[in-house]
Amino acid sequence: xxxxxxxxxxxxxxxxxxxxxxxxxxxxxxxxxxxxxxxxxxxxxxxxxxxxxxxxxxxxxxxxxxxxxxxxxxxxxxxxxxxxxxxxxx
Amino acid sequence: xxxxxxxxxxxxxxxxxxxxxxxxxxxxxxxxxxxxxxxxxxxxxxxxxxxxxxxxxxxxxxxxxxxxxxxxxxxxxxxxxxxxxxxxxxxxxxxxxxxxxxxxxxxxxxxxxxxxxxxxxxxxxxxxxxxxxxxxxxxxxxxxxxxx
Lengths: 90, 148
Known about the structure:
- Chain A is an alpha/beta fold.
- Chain A has a single domain, classed as Rossmann fold.
- Helix content of chain A is about 40%, strand content about 20%.
- Chain A contains 4 helices and 4 strands, in the order E-H-E-H-E-H-E-H.
- Chain A has a 4-stranded parallel sheet, covered by helices on one side.
- In chain A, helix 1 links the parallel strand 1 (about 1-5) and strand 2.
- In chain A, helix 1 (about 15-30) packs across helix 4 (about 80-90).
- Chain A starts with a strand and ends with a helix.
- The mean pLDDT of chain A is about 90.
- Helix content of chain B is about 35%, strand content about 20%.
- Chain B contains 5 helices and 4 strands.
- A 4-stranded mixed sheet of chain B has the order 1-3-4-2, with helices on both faces.
- Chain B is globular, with a radius of gyration of 14 Å.
- Classes of the chains: A alpha/beta, B alpha/beta.
- The interface between A and B is medium-sized, with 23 and 31 residues.
């Protein structure tokens, strides 16, 4: 299972999203590899991903993908991430 | 956790718009010796290029740019606003706390980011920062000790 967290630069916000997504996955008892990446590399990094986590601004730019794109409102809300990841992967 | 010296904390600031708020975070990072003057405008450019995605939680913007020559050392800054400003985010506006972040490489700060996530997993953290009246109060939210 591969999950990719996408942000503009790949250094700040996607790293926070990765940390909190890993916490949500641990609660769900789902074993997955979460990678943080920037928008420019999404097509390469996410080519074999099941899920892309990102913010509303990037959905259009991510474009066509076979992965489920999950839009995250509050990057620090592990409950929100748990609910959305559970729905996508459950 | 990155440290938070007094010059990196600006409280109850006036900002006319989101650009001014982000530039205040740049000025605080510069004052603390983490970056040069070019870094603030680069943080603004990130939002101009990608939108308001840096508003990652209600009321909180994580201003940052990619590593570059204008980053002297990894650093963090906290700016709170007297009047919140709108960044144009669909859910999390308006913003009353701007966190400025500068890193030397994309990988170096992974531990620090995890610790930041711990701080803000506590839902009251943003309100506590917005209400803080001293740099020591801000450091306490981050679990950092008071400075003499």
